[in-house]
Each structure stands twice: as C-alpha cells, then as structure tokens.
Design brief:
This protein is α/β, with parallel strands linked by helices and 686 residues long. It contains 27 helices and 20 strands. Strands 7-6-8-9-5-10 form a 6-stranded parallel sheet. A 5-stranded parallel sheet has the order 11-20-19-12-18. Helix 9 packs across helix 11 (223-237) and helix 21 runs antiparallel to helix 22 (492-506). It is globular and about 75 Å long. The chain starts with 19 loop residues before the first helix and ends with a helix. It binds adenosine-5'-triphosphate. Adenosine-5'-triphosphate binds next to helix 11.
C-alpha cells in the first residue's frame, strides 16, 4: 500500500480504532464529513448488530463496499483496495490520510482480510466450501483476487454471466451460402479485392447464429443501419416470417423512439431497393412501437419486480436493445431472465460511453474483446463463407489460444459515416487520450463547429443558453420564440403541430453538466438559465409550474406512462376550437406521437435546461455545451467528456472553469469494479 499524502491534523478525524465501537465511531465521523454516505456507516452498524464478534476489518469493508456500490461499482475488489486505495476510492487527500490511520490497525495482508471477513457468519464464501444460508454479504473470486459483494449484486452478476455463457456456448447452425446471398442483397455485393473489411455484414452474420450478440461502435458507425438489415435477414431466413415476434427496446423513452424511427426509415429504404423480394412492410408492422426496457418488462409501481420474469417469459423471438451502455446490472439480469431460451437478443451501444448511473458497466464488460476481435479460426471460416471476405488476421486469436465464446458473438463497427467532421475528430482524440490533438482542435475552433470558453464564473455560460454563439445559433431562445407563436383558437391538429414544433426546437440545444450540485452543476445552472431567460423577456416563470418549463422525469411511473429520463415541456392543454384555454400539461414526444400528463400528477420531475451528461445518453442536440466544473473530482473522466461531445450534431462548445480540466478529465479513465469479466472468462459458478 502506498499513501503519499501528509496527514493534515486539523481536518482528519484523529481517532485510531482498535475496537468495534471505535471503528463504528470512525465510520460515522467519515459520514459526517461526507467521505462516506450515512447509509454506508449505517450498514456497518447493521452488520455489527448481526454479528457481535464482527472484526473491525469487516465493518470497514462493509461501509466501503456500499460506498462503492453507490458510485456504480458492483463489488469491493480487495486486492486493488489494499494496493491502490486512492485509485479505488477516488478520495481526497484528507480522507486518504484518515484511511491510512485506520489501516494501521487492520490486517496488513490480503489473506488477513479474507480471514477477517470469512470468520463472520454474515459473509458467504462463494469460492470456498462455505454453506449458503442466505448471508447478506458474499466473498467471491479467486484467492488472490477476492471481491466482496452485497448479495443482491452477486446474484445479478452470477445470473447475467450464466445467461451469457448459455446463450453463446454453441452457435445456432446456419447455411453460410444462403446468408451470403442475403447479405449481398441487403448491403450490396462485396467486390473482389475490396480493401476495407465489411464489419456490418459480419455483425449480421454473427448475430444470425447467436442467441445473444453485441454490436458496438461509436456514433454514426451504422449500428441501427446494421440492426435494420439484421432484422430483414432474420425475416428472410425464418421458416414462418409471418409469425416472427420482433421487439425493439431501449433504456429511455427518447432512445426507444429514436431507435424505432431509424429502423423504420432504414427498412423503408431497403423496401424501395428490394421491392417485393421481401415483405418488409409486414416486418415493420410486426415490430410495433419501441418501448423502454421498463415498459417491455412490465414495471410495476413501488416494486422492483416486473410482470415478465423467469416464470413468465416475454412473448418475443427477436429483441433489439439500443443504447445498451445505459443498461445496468440489475436491469440486464431481469431482461435476460425474462427472455425465452430460443429468443435472440442483440445489444447495440457504444462501449466507450459512460456506464449506467446505477451499478454495473455491463456493456463495457461484455465488450472487453471488441477492439481486439479475438475471433477463432472457426469464426473466421464462417465469416469468409458468409460475407465473402477474410477477417484480417490481427483480429484472430493466436493459434493455440482459447477464443472467448462471447467474442464470437461481438462485432465492433469501426467506420463512422456521420461523425466525420471536427466533432468526430475531437471525439476520437478524447477517446484515445490524445490530449494535444484535442486541445489543438478546440483552440482552432474549427470552422466554428468547435468552441472553447474558459470561464471563471458560471454566469459566463448564460449567453450561450439565451442567444447561442457565432456558428451555433441553436439555443433556448429558439423554442421560446416558437412557443410565442401559439395558434390560439386553432384546430386540434394545428395545436398538436405547434406542440411538436416547440418540442423539436427545444431539442436543438442542451447544457450538459458533469455534476448535479453547485453553481456549475445542473441544479444551479437550471436556476441561472431560468432567470437569464426571464431577464431576456423570453420566459415568465410564476411558481413551480409555468408556461414553457422544460422538465425531465426522474422516476418511472408506468401508470402515468412516464419514465426516468423522459423530457417534456409545460404547455396549455390542447382544446377543441372555441373552448377556453386549458390547464397546464407536460407534453412529451415519442417520434411523431404526443403524450401529455397534467402537471399536478407529475411529482418526480426536475427542470431540464441543464442536465447531467449521464442523463443525456441516447440523445443528440444540434448544439451541445459541456460544462466542466472547477473541482476535477472522480466524476470528471474521459468517458464523461467523450459522451458529452458525441451528443453534439452540428456544434460543440466546451466550457472549462479552470485551465487543465480537459487534460485532467482525459487522463482519468472510469474503472468500475465488477466481477462479470472474470466470470465470463473463468466460469460463472465462481
Ligand atoms: N453501410 C452503409 N452505407 C451507407 N450508409 C450507411 C451505412 N452505414 C450507415 N450508414 C448511414 O450512416 C448514418 C449513421 O448510421 P446509424 O444511425 O445506423 O449509426 P449509429 O451507429 O446507430 O449511430 P448512433 O450511435 O448515433 O445511434 C445513417 O445515415 C446511415 O444511414
């Protein structure tokens, strides 16, 4: 263990614990100063209540475990914690100094920690000979790499790993020559000697012979384009296409609506090209609307249980899940459990984006080998026969090495069709950690597409929100000017068109924050933008609900039909011509469809001028502003900046509160502790 920081005596709680009571007292103090959450120290107290003999190491491990779980990790990896506590915990120097004091009276070796944990009846030894009596904590993993879990997350990880192993163990038999014929029709024939390898064709060919597959790639690499062709292929080769049950889903309503629009448009284009060769209109009809994963599984109010589960399976043969990077571990476990063994699931997503808000980094874990490929000779033979091209040798496992089963069902698309200009170059530079290139692109403000604003005061951001900037005029003025053109007394269709226009204008611009709290966070900026728009005479806030208030739903409510992440605008209820103006309702768009809910029924919403980068996943805006706050804490990561940049369609502005923040963020990679990769590699029953 290496602690290089000096102990600041005046700030760190100085108590050195030797007993259970002292340890609990120290953990409580850490909660009071904000190093831990109250919940974290309370859970240590709970463990001490369950086990009167609990060793201090167990109590500390429990508090750190739940602390990490609250930050998206699924487990506490003990070896890295002992070797590099700063990297694992991401704590301040003060907190690390206090931890160092505590460490001095805890076991100094990994085996000492294992023994301290396994001595307790509250810990189940999953890797050893322990008896499973439903203990609340689980110690899993190899002796040299033990991981401590809350049982819930251990169970989810086991279930996900088992499902993936079962679904990828044996390829579904297919006739490669027939696949090739269809791929040539759907994508165009591969010409002899074609230089670039057709990853999109390969993705379709791979998904056809798997019950679970992953298509990953950056923005605009053609994930949805490929998924539409995969659906057409599945439809073409199915014995009873008229019975094929196809479902589309995504973690948020917006992402689901976008998926449906893109797939419909791609299938319509294909239909024009292929004519009556395939009955694609029937396929489009069979798909129905895209749904959120919560809606697909049948979320029920006030419970984590879904209507569909292992005992009542989803009625589906093919399921496409978009924006899979946002799917958290618990949702993934629920989804795979509810999927019939014979069904195919295809995950689409960008592995380099931020992981889900909730615990787990499932897509990242699944895509461990995506960049390298790691295809077997058998996969290479199939790829050659099904696509007419040879897989480049650098993507094959060296002969004699084992090829991971999941890798044989994973394809990374590598060429972006949409993200080719300065925004794409910046995204690539950030994603590959090329700090100098990223700074150069931003400094030159390439054709005003990219823009950098160094601001010591958050107030400097407001003009961007009110009037945009040179080269990027999309801002909140646009939707408010549209709002002012309300067709009072217009017909219902006219009013609906106006609502759609207001919603579309609002979607042109967004402020994205790294954090929620503070002047530079979403909460502070929401208030500041509201006031700035009021000062500009564009908005007239009165009370909590006012005309034009944009809101984001923060909790799923299946009864109301609103889901976490949905964004709507407060507008007068649409009325038949001649009737008095209605009460305020929040309008949401699902593609061309409108939904609305009375404001008094929406309890879990927040204003949405500014939102966190996390919440923006699955959305794109014409002009996106990313705000980097003054303190480069652990949230400021390469993934966060990459995700923010890739939300921008035509223009991107980076606001940095201090010099060096972009560099610091790009140098910080998010590493979520999880056992999923280990389980997939070494067997799920570990
Ligand atoms: N092989 C191709 N030939 C021609 N056009 C393509 C091809 N692949 C993708 N495109 C086009 O490139 C654009 C981006 O494709 P698509 O939307 O499928 O990418 P994506 O990876 O799903 O993007 P996002 O991550 O933003 O969802 C679309 O206009 C699509 O029609």
């Amino acid at each position: 263990m290496s602690f290089s920081v000096e102990l600041p005596v005046d700030t760190a709680p100085a108590l050195v614990p030797a007993t259970v009571a002292d340890t609990l007292q120290t953990l409580r103090q850490w909660s009071e100063v904000g190093w831990l959450r109250r919940l974290d120290s309370a859970l240590a107290v709970w463990v001490a209540d369950l086990d009167a003999q609990a060793e201090p190491a167990l109590l500390v491990a429990t508090a750190l475990l739940t602390h990490l779980e609250g930050r998206g990790h699924t487990c506490l990896p003990l070896a890295p914690l002992l070797q590099r506590p700063a990297a694992v915990l991401g704590w301040s120097a003060d907190a690390l100094s206090a931890l160092e004091l505590l460490w001095a009276v805890l076991p100094s070796t990994l085996s000492g920690w294992r023994a301290a944990l396994l001595n307790s009846p509250v810990v189940y030894d999953a890797a050893g000979l322990g008896q499973d009596t439903g203990q609340p904590l689980v110690l899993s993993g190899a002796v040299e790499a033990p991981r401590l879990y809350l049982r819930r997350y251990w169970t989810y990880e086991q279930a996900v790993a088992q499902q993936i192993a079962e679904r990828t163990a044996v390829p579904v038999p297919v006739e490669p020559a027939m696949v090739r014929g269809w791929l040539d029709r759907l994508f165009g024939a591969t010409s002899v000697g074609e230089a670039t390898f057709g990853w999109q064709k390969l993705a379709c060919a791979m998904a056809l012979r798997g019950r679970l597959s992953v298509i990953t790639g950056g923005p605009g690499t053609g994930k949805t384009y490929t998924a539409a062709r995969l659906l057409a292929l599945l439809f073409a080769v199915d014995e009873h296409p008229e019975r094929l049950r196809v479902a589309l889903a995504a973690p948020t309503g917006k992402a689901a609506a976008r998926l449906k629009q893109s797939i419909d448009a791609a299938l319509a284009g294909l239909h024009e090209r292929l004519g009556a060769t395939l009955n694609l209109p029937m396929l489009t009809q069979r798909m129905g609307p895209a749904r959120t994963l919560h809606a697909l599984l049948g979320a029920r109010p006030d419970t984590r249980q879904f209507q569909y589960h292992a005992g009542r399976l989803l009625d589906v043969d093919v399921l496409i899940v978009d924006e899979a990077s946002m799917v958290h571990l618990e949702m993934m476990a629920a989804l795979l459990a509810a999927l019939p063994a014979s069904a195919r699931v295809i995950f689409l997503g960008d592995k380099d984006q931020l992981a889900s808000v909730e615990a787990g980094a499932v897509l990242g874990d699944l895509c461990r080998d995506a960049q390298a490929g790691r295809y077997s000779a058998e996969t290479a033979d199939y790829a050659q026969a099904a696509t007419g091209q040879s897989l480049p040798v650098e993507y094959l496992v060296p002969s004699g090495s084992a090829a991971p089963p999941l890798a044989q069902h994973t394809v990374m698309l590598r060429e972006s069709r949409r993200f080719v200009g300065p925004i794409g170059q910046l995204a690539l530079a950030v994603n590959t950690g090329e700090v100098a290139a990223a700074r150069r692109l931003l400094a030159h403000g390439t054709a005003q597409v990219l823009w950098r604003l160094d601001a010591s005061d958050a107030g400097a951001i407001l003009p961007l929100a009110v009037q945009g900037r040179p080269g990027a005029l999309a801002c909140y003025r646009c939707y408010l000017e549209q709002l002012a053109q309300r067709p009072v007394g217009g017909s219902v269709p006219e009013q609906e068109d106006w609502v759609r226009r207001v919603l579309a204008e609002f979607e042109r611009f967004r402020l994205l924050c790294a954090v929620r709290e503070g002047d530079w966070g979403a909460i502070g900026l929401n208030r500041a933008v509201e006031r700035a728009l009021q000062r500009a005479g564009l908005l007239h806030p009165r009370g909590e609900w006012y005309l034009g208030r944009p809101v984001m739903v923060t909790r799923n409510d299946p009864v109301l039909g609103v889901f976490n992440g949905d964004i709507g605008i407060t507008l007068p209820a649409i009325q038949e011509t001649g009737r008095a103006a209605g009460s305020l309702r929040v309008y949401f768009a699902d593609g061309p469809q409108l939904r609305s809910v009375g404001v008094s029924r929406l309890a879990h919403v927040e204003t949405a001028f500014a939102m966190t980068v996390h919440k923006s996943q699955g959305s794109e805006f014409e002009h996106t502003v990313l705000v980097l706050p003054p303190q480069a804490g652990p949230v400021l990561s390469r993934e966060l900046v990459y995700t923010g940049i890739t939300r921008a369609r035509l223009a991107f502005t980076l606001v940095s509160a201090q010099p060096g923040l972009l560099t610091a963020a790009m140098q910080q990679r998010t590493q979520r502790a999880s056992g999923l990769q280990d389980l997939l590699q070494h067997g799920w029953a570990a």
